Amino acid sequence: MICRVNSINLYYEMSGVGKPLILLHGNGETHKIFDKAIPILSEHFTVYAIDSRGHGQSDSVLEYHYDDMAEDIKCFIHELKLEQPILYGFSDGGIIGLILASKYPQLLSRLIISGANTVPDGIRTGWLRLFQCINAVVKEPKMTMMLKEPNITTEMLKCIVIPTTVLAGSRDMVKRSHTEYIADSIPNSKLNILQGEGHGSYVLHNTKLVNLILDATK
User: Fold this and answer.
1) CATH number of domain containing 156
2) Higher pLDDT, 218 or 100
3) Domain that holds residue 164
4) Per-residue pLDDT reduced to its tens digit, 88-99
């Protein structure tokens, strides 16, 4: 399905019945990373799996910014008249969720993020240098965004008033101290570090994500 928002066409797939649940993927991915989780989640929620701008079947633009992506989702919620949906965001999807919940405190009912960072330096040094080296060669706009953004402040995190679950793997590419900082800065948040998991090992094409979302929404 296509939804016209914020001057672009945003592709999404909808399935299931119940309270609306938005799923947002990471940089360079599509909604298809949730292919194993969606059939089960659809038994509990109306699931909206979205391709972010420049990904999958959604429109591309010349330059990417997380704030624009957050506005896309705000417009999507208004266009489809979704009433305080739950939002789960992985990696870049989590960044979008943080921005959205801080700018529009009553738009969502609950936020679940995993492997998100608030500044580029929240990524482990080795990973950050690797991305910098790759982008020096390929000059990919979405990777350029990731190396320059986000710039989410502590004050912005403190504006998030809805119940929030902060997830990360113990072997995540985001620094553990940074994940702990995010959870500590959001007033009504819970932190869950998943032992033995990497950045997306429990998310990409994996049913482990299902119980994490169900536990966070009880």
Assistant:
1) 3.40.50.1820
2) 100
3) 2-216
4) 999 999 999 999
Q: From CA 204, how far away is CA 135, in angstroms rounded?
A: 23
Cα separation, 171 vs 96, whole angstroms: 22
**SS3 state of residue 136:** helix
Q: Is the pTM of this model over 0.90?
A: yes
DSSP labels for 158-191? HT--S-EEEEEETT-SB-HHHHHHHHHHSTTEEE
Count of domains for the chain: 1
> What would the 3-class secondary structure string for 8-72 be?
EEEEEEEEECCEEEEEECCCCCCHHHHCCCHHHHCCCEEEEEECCCCCCCCCCCCCCCHHHHHHH
Contacts of 7 (CB under 8 A, 6+ apart): none
Q: Which amino acid is present at 80? A: L
Is residue 94 left, alpha or beta, with left meaning phi > 0 and alpha meaning psi from -120 to 50? alpha
- The dihedrals phi and psi of 32, each to the nearest 5 degrees, come to -70, -15
For 138, other C-beta atoms within 10 Å of its C-beta total 9
Phi-psi region of 205 (alpha: psi -120 to 50; beta: other; left: phi over 0): left
